Amino acid sequence: MSTALDRFLTPLLGAADGAHAVAVAAVRGEECAVLCRGPAEPGTRFEVGSLTKTFTALLLAELVARGEVHYADPVDRYLPSAVPGPPITLLHLATHTAGLPRLPPGLIGREARAAWFSNPYAAFTSADLLAALPRTRLHHRPGTRVRYSNYGVGLLGHTLARAAGGDYAELLTERVLAPLGLTDTDCDPYRPQALGHWHGRPRPPWLIPGLPAAGALRSSARDLLRFLLALLAPDRADLTGLPPSLRAALADVQRPRLALPRTGNRVCLVWNLRPRGGRPLLHHSGGTRGFSAFAGFLPGSGCALAALADTAPTPLAPFIQAAYGTLCALDGSAAGHVPGDRGRELPGGGRESRPLPGGPAHVQ
């Protein structure tokens, strides 16, 4: 049965150039809808790339709510080796203010270059990540600039797993995915999923063993809708069975941690926040060598949208831009593009380095 949401979502199904399978999901008030095109269903799993980072942020907030870690904890408290220089905290990693490069040293070796158009991260392991720490040079003092880093959020996930005495993927499932009922979502590249494409050519499943917290998740439109519904209203009646720590974390990830100069934009825990009609709009995008993904929500209006496509982002990211504009349209505000957020966070994209006036005092 057609819904009022369909007229907003239907154009988005055709916005991903070269895509075979597309799935979009949205909520506006009490109305929800999931639309699919091609060989996709509401439960079809897509690689979500850097949307993984938003789940890693939720895991961090959940451990903080339990008192197992604290935002101000230095990373080297939990690791056998450290990055030379001033201490890097968990909050620095979750706000891209650690000063770390976009990728860890040693990742772009001969094997990564040979697999650049398929699986550049596949040969980089957790052991390689630990070996990279003492070889890392910071681009700036922690807490003074925003510099997008896959390395940083990958390191955050590794640190949280060490702090809790487990594996990142297992810990995320136990603390976040299973309590939220996200049965289609995990880091397993061998469960059935859509076939990704890059310039029309099929791509193998994305492998990122050393930095899973930065981009290893697969998810579906229906799971992402459930995730966004939980973020919109952590106190909803059907979420009463959630652990108090996860309910608190759902709210805490949305709290602005720092302000970007001259823009009015904020950075939360991983999520980007832009004022939209006097209310916050939170969003993030993701991409792998075969997939594009977007998720965003407006807590003040009860609107949220997730969009998935089985094709890699192109430089102008029309699918990501269209998804952002559709979310704005759901809220009734003027649609706009997403400056600095092209859906290319993996493997080499991201935002430029931006100074923070006053430095560390702006990281809360």
Automatic annotation (TrEMBL):
Disordered, as annotated region: 338-364
Transmembrane segments: none
InterPro entries on file: AmpC-like, Beta-lactam-related, Beta-lactam/transpept-like
Domain of life according to the entry: Bacteria
Keywords: Hydrolase
Ranges where the Beta-lactamase-related domain occurs: 16-314
One Gene Ontology term of the molecular function aspect: hydrolase activity
Coiled-coil boundaries: none
Protein name, UniProt field: Serine hydrolase domain-containing protein
Native source species: Streptomyces blastmyceticus
